């Protein structure tokens, strides 16, 4: 699959979210980090802001729920306009049921793993998912340094996906930049969340194009 870039609005100017969303409309997704100050030690935004963002941009919304009780809240983000919803397996009470509900409501179902959470215990869940997110930093704050020790986990996850013959995406989030995206792509990731690398650039749209080119070059995908 061709690499996809999902800029994270966590690194955007929150006073200008509509403009910041439009600034990256060449991206594949707009990554929306939802944090509740319980599952992670930070508080960001919720359903009303997601609904407003959905009206402000044509880019589909990729909502990453870093919250407690995603079983209860995830459906509301789909109703607000999210095209993809990611829940953390560490927080979900019934991940299979939740993934099926997300799909039934018309969104892509994705499951996230913290850096210390192994993929192997969840191998049987993979067919229920459209995407799996391997966190390459501890969730909760933007601008963190990429954890190189996650690269073997990305490789193992890709091997499991391929072993089952699944057409699911493998996303990475945390410290993704021009310096790290090629390593992630070579390890098997194909969806890349980038916050600071995009929104700290003078031209965010150009930064998206450059990240896409680097990922394509690393994998020999079309466009490289």
Short description:
This protein has helices at residues 17-22, 47-56, 70-79, 95-104, 151-163, 181-187, 196-199, 204-219, and strands at residues 4-7, 30-35, 61-66, 84-88, 108-113, 131-135, 169-173, 191-194. The chain has 224 residues and is an alpha/beta fold. An eight-stranded parallel β-sheet has the order 1-8-7-6-5-4-3-2.
Topology overview:
Blueprint: E1 4-7, H1 17-22, E2 30-35, H2 47-56, E3 61-66, H3 70-79, E4 84-88, H4 95-104, E5 108-113, E6 131-135, H5 151-163, E7 169-173, H6 181-187, E8 191-194, H7 196-199, H8 204-219
Parallel strand pairs: 1-8, 2-3, 3-4, 4-5, 5-6, 6-7, 7-8
Helix pairs in contact: 3-4, 6-8
Residue-averaged pLDDT: 95
Q: Tell me the total number of β-strands.
A: 8
Radius of gyration: 16 Å
Low-confidence stretches: none
Q: Tell me, what's the shape? A: globular
Strand order in space, largest sheet: 1-8-7-6-5-4-3-2
Portion of residues in helices?
Answer: 25-40%
N-to-C SSE series? EHEHEHEHEEHEHEHH
Number of individual domains = 1
What fraction strand?
15-25%
CATH superfamily placement: Aldolase class I
Helix-strand category: alpha/beta
CATH architecture: Alpha-Beta Barrel
Distance between the termini: 13 Å
- CATH top level class name: Alpha Beta
Describe the structure.
This protein has 224 residues and is α/β, with parallel strands linked by helices. The chain is 34% helix and 18% strand. The chain contains 8 helices and 8 strands, in the order E-H-E-H-E-H-E-H-E-E-H-E-H-E-H-H. It has helices at residues 17-22, 47-56, 70-79, 95-104, 151-163, 181-187, 196-199, 204-219, and strands spanning 4-7, 30-35, 61-66, 84-88, 108-113, 131-135, 169-173, 191-194. An 8-stranded parallel β-sheet has the order 1-8-7-6-5-4-3-2. Strand 3, helix 3 (70-79) and strand 4 form a beta-alpha-beta unit. The radius of gyration is 16 Å and the shape is globular. 46% of the residues are buried.
